[in-house]
């Protein structure tokens, strides 16, 4: 873009004041005495481009008093009624427009830029006029936004970049413009310009430099961001899928094994599986299902072919005694499991309390290291660990057992203890999970045994010639359990499929990310 | 240092010297001067009128030591019922030494029977305050407790 001409106009009751500057095609040098308006002219250019936001987030019009309040004309001060600037610019396809923006006006807001479709200053005439808004949200993206217009006029395509909130936004013109302008006060102190940070764009200087120099890095950074976002999504989905199946398994007294909470821990060899848990051991879901199936077949056979109650009464009495014995055993085991859960709960609470204390202690030791530095020049006790009166070591004040551990060693010791307590917490939590699953299984067993006892008792008083009520009940229950196991198994299959496809996506994303990170800069970039 | 008898040295046929060194002992952070001195400055600053008596300091420095004591203190201070008794009779000799050191170091000044921050102490306190993470738990506790006056402490202790 080339600047062709600038016009600054201030209207008062006494008449109009202002100036017109024509820029040649090469370098233009403005030379004038102090306070004659060089800076105002420069600000006029920035203002007409709606770029004052690159210097400050404030919304005020960035002009001196003479443009907005009062101006001196013929030795007398007059209030400013209206003021505006017009900038005539030309783009790389020789298209010329004039940008008019009011600093003070009763009719036009300073948030408006009038775009006139011709060289209003150098070739006055009637040109088409369009209004665009600026310095308001959407100015860079919406059709009526002036910066969206300017970006298009410049033939630019500003890239999307990340904000601190991890959102994607456009690299604003305010971030790029400082590369084409040297600010008077700070500008010459270094090569790099000051880029506004209030726009919340992450690394705005780097992003703008990459854009201005047309580096491929920007595209690469964006790919990394996109891939990272996808990676997080995959991880979240993974976690929720595993958690869902785990809770479904728990309801059946089963335990999900070999399912990692995150794809990072998974290897192709790990296949999640389900186990039915008792307090002593665990059998695979398949094995458990086949046991149940055998029981179901036996019960069905009994119902269909076995003799009636009258014939089997002595056998039923024996069975009742046996099942009552088993029931007592189950209840006793249940009580043991429940007691252990209570005691483990207490152990976890006390480990958590100890961890709190140790973490507090660990924080304090780190604080002490900082306090030594902070206090070095004010306090002998803090800086040198010496008595301010006799200049002797204060170690003996802190402990009667000497020597005392250095701060670093003490920190290592506490860190070790924290790890140990965490280990206890982790083990107890794991054990408690298993016991809770066993609790569900045992409660279920106790319930079923109680029902068997009840039905055996009713069989013994039932009229002879009936099939056993206990067997019918047992058959219904076994069918129900097998059905829920099959359902759970189906869900496991779905989960495994889902995890495998997620793992493939995850691995692919990882490798893309690694590749992107490895290409620190492309060879083209190095040349640029 | 302990030298082995000649006999053993000759058996091994190499000169052997065994050195016995006492193992360094860990010290609780609250017993370390840096923590105690700095927390003391925070505590004095948190007293009503920025002036502290020995009762106030013993009580607050006791409460500051452990997370559980801090919680107990806050519940008690708010008038809630508590399971663990407040250590009303516990006078920590270590605090007396730290107070003497703080006076010697010019961080605290005596005003009759009470202590207040000296300009040097205020300077150090400002440095401590300027780092948000430094003594974070201690600062949070004192903020929760609010300004602590001597009369309130005496009344609470009488009721305890």
Can you describe this structure?
The complex is a heterodimer of chains A (528) and B (160). By secondary structure, chain A is α+β, with helices and mostly antiparallel strands. Chain A has helices at 38-48, 65-68, 146-154, 173-176, 204-212, 217-251, 285-305, 309-374, 380-383, 395-398, 407-461, 469-518, 523-527; strands spanning 2-12, 15-22, 70-73, 76-79, 82-90, 96-104, 112-116, 129-133, 160-162, 168-170, 254-257, 273-277, 282-284. In chain A, the strands form 4 sheets. In chain A, strands 2-1-5-6-7-8 form a 6-stranded antiparallel beta sheet. In chain A, strands 11-12-13 form a 3-stranded antiparallel beta sheet. In chain A, strands 3-4 form a two-stranded antiparallel sheet. In chain A, helix 6 packs antiparallel against helix 12, helix 7 (285-305) runs antiparallel to helix 12 (469-518) and helix 11 packs antiparallel against helix 12. Chain A is elongated, with a radius of gyration of 41 Å. Chain B is mostly helical and 160 residues long. Helices cover 54% and strands 9% of the residues of chain B. Chain B has helices at 6-12, 33-45, 54-64, 67-77, 93-104, 119-130, 136-145, 150-159, and strands at 2-3, 17-18, 51-52, 108-111, 114-117. In chain B, the strands form 2 sheets. A 3-stranded antiparallel beta sheet of chain B has the order 3-5-4. In chain B, strands 1-2 form a two-stranded antiparallel sheet. In chain B, helix 3 crosses helix 4 (67-77). The mean pLDDT of chain B is 86. The chains are: A alpha+beta (528), B mainly alpha (160). At the A-B interface, helix 8, helix 9 and helix 11 of A face helix 2, helix 5 and helix 6 of B.
């Amino acid at each position: 873009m080339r600047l062709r001409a600038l016009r600054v106009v201030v209207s008062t009751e006494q008449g109009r004041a202002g100036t017109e500057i024509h820029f040649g095609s090469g370098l233009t040098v403005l030379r004038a005495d102090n306070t004659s308006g060089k800076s105002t002219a420069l600000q006029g250019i920035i203002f007409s481009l709606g770029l004052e936001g690159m210097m400050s987030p404030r919304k005020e019009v960035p002009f001196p008093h003479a443009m907005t309040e009062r101006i001196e004309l013929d030795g007398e001060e007059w209030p400013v009624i209206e003021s505006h600037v017009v900038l005539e610019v030309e783009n790389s396809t020789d298209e010329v427009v004039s940008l008019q923006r009011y600093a003070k006006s009763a009719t036009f807001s300073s948030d408006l830029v009038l775009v006139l479709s011709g060289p209003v200053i150098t070739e006055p005439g009637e040109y088409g006029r369009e209004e665009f808004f600026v310095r308001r949200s959407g100015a860079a993206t919406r059709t009526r936004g002036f910066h969206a217009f300017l970006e298009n006029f410049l033939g630019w395509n500003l890239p999307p970049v990340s904000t601190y909130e991890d959102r994607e936004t456009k690299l604003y013109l305010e971030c790029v413009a400082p590369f084409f302008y040297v600010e008077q006060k700070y500008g010459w102190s270094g090569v790099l310009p000051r880029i506004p940070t209030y726009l919340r764009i992450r690394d705005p200087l780097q992003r703008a430099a990459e854009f201005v120099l047309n580096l491929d890095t920007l595209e690469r950074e964006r790919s990394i961001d996109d891939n990272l976002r996808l990676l997080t999504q995959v991880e979240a989905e993974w976690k929720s899928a595993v958690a869902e199946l785990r809770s479904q398994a728990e309801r059946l007294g089963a335990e999900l094994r070999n399912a990692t909470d995150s794809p990072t821990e998974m290897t192709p060899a790990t296949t999640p599986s389900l186990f039915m848990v008792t307090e002593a051991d665990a059998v695979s879901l398949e094995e458990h299902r086949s046991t149940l199936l055998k029981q179901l077949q036996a019960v069905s056979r009994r119902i269909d072919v076995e003799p009636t109650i009258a014939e089997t009464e002595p056998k039923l009495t024996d069975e009742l005694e046996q099942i009552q014995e088993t029931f007592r055993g189950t209840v006793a085991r249940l009580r043991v499991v429940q007691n252990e859960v209570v005691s483990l709960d207490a152990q976890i609470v006390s480990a958590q309390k100890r961890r709190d204390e140790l973490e507090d202690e660990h924080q304090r030791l780190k604080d002490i290291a900082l306090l030594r530095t902070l206090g070095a020049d004010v306090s002998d006790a803090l800086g040198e660990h010496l008595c301010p009166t006799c200049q002797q070591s204060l170690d003996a004040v802190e402990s009667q057992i000497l020597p005392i551990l250095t701060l670093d060693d003490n920190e290592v010791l506490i860190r070790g203890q924290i790890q140990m307590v965490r280990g206890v917490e982790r083990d107890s939590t794991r054990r408690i999970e298993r016991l809770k699953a066993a609790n569900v299984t045992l409660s279920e067993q106790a319930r079923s045994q109680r029902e068997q006892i009840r039905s055996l008792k009713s069989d013994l008083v039932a009229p002879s010639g009936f099939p056993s009520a206990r067997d019918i009940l047992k058959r219904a229950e076994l069918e129900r359990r097998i059905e829920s196991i099959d359902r759970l198994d189906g869900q496991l299959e779905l989960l495994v499929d889902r995890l495998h496809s997620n793992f493939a996506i995850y691995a692919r994303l990882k490798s893309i990310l690694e590749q992107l990170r490895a290409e620190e800069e492309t060879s083209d970039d190095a040349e640029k | 240092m302990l030298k082995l008898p000649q006999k053993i040295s000759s058996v091994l046929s190499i000169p052997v010297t065994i050195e016995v060194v006492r193992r360094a002992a860990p010290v609780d952070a609250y017993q370390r001067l840096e923590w105690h001195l700095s927390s003391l400055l925070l505590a004095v600053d948190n007293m009503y009128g920025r002036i502290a008596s020995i009762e106030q300091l013993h009580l607050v420095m006791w409460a500051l030591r452990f997370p559980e004591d801090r919680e107990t203190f806050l519940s008690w201070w708010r008038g809630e019922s508590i399971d663990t008794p407040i250590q009303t009779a516990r006078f920590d000799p270590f605090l007396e030494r730290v107070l003497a050191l703080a006076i010697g170091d010019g961080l605290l000044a005596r005003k009759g029977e009470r202590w207040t921050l000296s300009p040097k102490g205020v300077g150090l306190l400002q440095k401590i305050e300027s780092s948000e993470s430094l003594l974070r738990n201690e600062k949070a506790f004192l903020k929760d407790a609010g300004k602590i006056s001597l009369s309130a402490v005496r009344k609470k202790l009488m009721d305890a």
